[in-house]
Amino acid sequence: MLAIVAAVLFLLALIFELVGISLAVITATVLVTAGLLCLALFLAGVGGSARRFVP
Asked: From residue 28, how far is each of 8, 15, 24, 49 by CA, in Å?
């Protein structure tokens, strides 16, 4: 799930950069940073599926 969120944030950052949009504090740089954070959390295993105990 975090990988999908990161992909959406990267897409928004690309659109912001290409169009030149900047909304107050939300810039392309902020979106890229948030995307990288989500990607790092995904690679660290945060938000993954729960482990099932099978005896």
From this structure: 12, 8, 11, 30
